[in-house]
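This part of the workshop introduces the protein records we will be handling. An example says more than a description, so a record of this kind follows.
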Amino acid sequence: MSGPLSTRERTLSILVGTVALLLVTFFVTDYFFKSKARLTADLAVKARQLRTMQMRSAEKAQWEQRAAWLAEKQPKLVSEERAGGQLLEQIKELAKKHSVLIESPVIRQSVRKPEYVAIGIEIETKSPWSALIAFLGELQTPEQFIVLDSANLKIDGADATQMRAKFKIARWYAPK
């Protein structure tokens, strides 16, 4: 059995107990501060999600109205084989109206996405800058569902008054 502790042993045991208590306190405090930081970050994320949901809920009527407009106005694809040719003819007529010369037109393969079916063409043009702007402005009106997938514009090397452009143009049809 053990007898009473000497003064030196008692001091040492108090010192060891104090160090152990300080270490436990340090680790518990560290755990609580890390938990608080994590919970604060989670709360900020949840608050942001709540604000987003409230905003979307407030705008629900507007988005339903837009979806109805889109369902009503977006063209339906009748014939995928003829759609590219029709788009090319429409663009040629518009280009002729604005004095834009179309060179090397190519009908691209259709692209199917959940939101739309894209029928596209690639064209190269030559025209004055003002005619090209008028052509593009009339080409991309909201109810035509015509988009420029890409455009590459440059000044014609032979004639600085002319613009050369390469366009990838697509019409978006309603998905089936």
